Amino acid sequence: MLLCGSASARPLQPAKVLFYYPIAVGGEIASVIDQRVAEFEAMHPAIDIEPIYSGTYKESLAKVLAANRAGTPPTLAVLHAVDLHTLIDADAIVPFDEFATTVDRDWLEDFEPAFMVNSRAGGKTWGIPFQRSTILLYWNKRAFSAAGLNPERPPQSWDEMRSMARRLTLRDKSGNVTRWGVQIPSSGFPYWLFQGWVTTNGGELMNAAGTETYFDQPAVIEALDYWNDLSRGDQVHPPGIIEWGSTPDDFLDERVSMIWTTSGNLANIARRAQFEFGVTSLPAHKRSGSPTGGGNFYVFKRSTPAQREAALEFIQWMTSPQQAAQWSMDTGYIPVRKSAWDVPLYRQYARRFPVATVAHAALEHSVPELSTHENQRVTKVLDEALYAALKGEKTPGQALREAQSRAMRILRPYQR
């Protein structure tokens, strides 16, 4: 049987756990991690957790794979949930089923089902959800009021977002834009933001096995046409490639009235905003929905039994209902445990700050984030196609058809 929810009372062997953690969103998350580690170590004196802040998800993956090839991987890492196939193919990680055998299955069954889709493969559990998210639309209520829009009613559809963005875009006497209507970042995680468009247009980017992509399907091309037209046609969205990291700042500085970004930015924006803002699910077209996102805990295969036991203890503690609730309040990530919603402090928080519940409600219509074998190569192909279309170098159809051909060549060895 697999895993219970609270840290055990059994004596633990002394162990040092090298823990790679990605810093990929705004805010002071590193200090939050440091605080959690110190609290855990005080309760578990035999365990030494050493956090290594390893950059973005992409940089962190490159570092752990290089360390794995060199025979010196970390014991534990938080890495992108969609890197599951890549880590398995590299023989880098160990499934929890093989070493977490002392406790019952209730622990895993308490995680949000939508997050477990990108945590399992081949009938085994390879990752434990930790900092998980969806894409949300944030809107500036003050800007809505100034534009004559109802500040309590965000766009519900693609057409409404386009029409509202037209009213929200401001220009000076020379025609220069002083505030954009809407902004969706196209660097950092462009494929993920694009999957929000594809999902709400009723399309899919890949199959469940991660062996096929569907980049050239009509619903996918139509989604990129719409995104591209917001800037090149309607001119209500900044042109070119928009930085992931600067998008929250552009919103906070009121250079843009609506943005798409991760729910993991919620606490950062809430702390810094000098105006009332709202948060809502992505505007629908043919359906509602968003891809899930964020990172999982992974344990590396070269770890010793004592290190695995220590890492498991830390993971169980970090994902306990109380810690999952506190992590959500500190960061804006969605509580990964269903029982976190029963924590009294979190119930009070949700009543006081109801926008925190929006991302959780969106899980009902969520889809798994794009994840394939050779995922870094495949997403790079898609990202390059998005760049080419958004910069006007290729039409959306041309860019995506070429991307589909390239992606399927990469995935051919896995189609058996």
- The coarse overall form would be globular
Largest sheet composition: 9 strands, mixed
Class from helix and strand fractions: alpha/beta
- Count all strands and give the number: 11
Oligomer: single chain
- The secondary-structure element order is EHEHEHHHHEEEHHEEHHHEHEEHHHHHH
What is the C-level CATH assignment of the largest domain?
Answer: Alpha Beta
Q: Can you name the CATH architecture of the largest domain?
A: 3-Layer(aba) Sandwich
Cα-atom radius of gyration:
22 Å
Structurally, the number of domains stands at 2
Number of contiguous helices: 18
End-to-end gap: 32 Å
Tell me what you see in this structure.
The protein has 18 helices and 11 strands. The chain has 416 residues and is an alpha/beta fold. The chain folds into 2 domains: 15-133 and 293-365, 3-Layer(aba) Sandwich (D-Maltodextrin-Binding Protein, domain 2); 135-291 and 369-414, Periplasmic binding protein-like II (D-Maltodextrin-Binding Protein, domain 2, 3-Layer(aba) Sandwich), CATH 3.40.190. Strand 7 (170-171) and strand 8 (177-183) form a beta hairpin. Residues 1-7 have low confidence and may be disordered. It comes from Ferrigenium kumadai. This is ABC transporter substrate-binding protein.
